[in-house]
Amino acid sequence: MSTEVWILVATAVLAVVAIGAAVIAVRAARRLAAVPSTPNPEPIEVSREVAPARRPTGEVTIHTPTRLPPELEPRIVEGRLIVPPTQQQVVQTALGRPGVRLSVLAHGLAHALRPESRDRISALMRREYRRRRRERAQAGRRAVRAARPTPPSDQWLGS
Predict the structure, then answer these.
(1) Rounded to two decimals, what is the model's pTM?
(2) pLDDT of 39-85, one tens digit each?
(3) Which of 68, 85, 111, 131 could lock onto 72 through a cystine, CB 3.0 to 4.6 A?
(4) CB 76 within 8 A of CB 82
């Protein structure tokens, strides 16, 4: 078989493995979503708040080092402190999940396996190979020139 056929077979195998992994990840995510949560979960303590001494009115003073937009301000809803996550926390949580990582990898593989991407990648590889071959040839010519003894100047005059 030719090299191109072997490359196509290898890419097909990689695509099948990526699809299989995506199916497994989706099934696991659905299974986790189907598990009921525990009743009456314990509230999570958040350290953005400085709890004041007991106040009879039930007010809570929230101290933040910088002024946040109103939608990101911590607030109390039904007796619980709600602190919206920062954008960095959301991104880290979303990109840290194995399903998301697998999805990003599958998207990258699918993009790389498209015909136009394959052609572009092979053209880039061919260009790099030719550039390196040209550099090796130039280095070889320089080495030959450097090793060649220079003739004395009177030989050029025909004496």
Answers:
(1) 0.29
(2) 555 555 545 444 444 545 555 555 555 666 667 778 888 888 888 88
(3) 68
(4) yes
Measuring CA to CA, which residue among 55, 50, 53 is closest to residue 81?
Answer: 50
Measuring CA to CA, how many Å separate 131 from each of 79, 117, 120, 122? 68, 21, 16, 14
User: How confident is the model over 8-24, as pLDDT tens digits?
Assistant: 999 999 999 999 999 99
**How far apart are alpha carbons 25 and 21 in whole angstroms?**
6
Write b or e for each residue in 101-136: b if 16 or more Cβ atoms lie within 10 A of its Cβ, otherwise e.
ebeeebeeeeeebeeeeeeeeeeeeeeeeeeeeeee
**Residue with tokens 């990101």, as numbered in its chain:** 72
Q: What is the dihedral of CA 133, 136, 141, 147, to 10 degrees?
A: -160
Which backbone phi and psi does 45 adopt, to 5 degrees?
Answer: -80, 135
CA distances from 58 to 43, 51, 53 (A): 18, 11, 10
Q: How far apart are CA 57 and CA 64, in angstroms?
A: 22
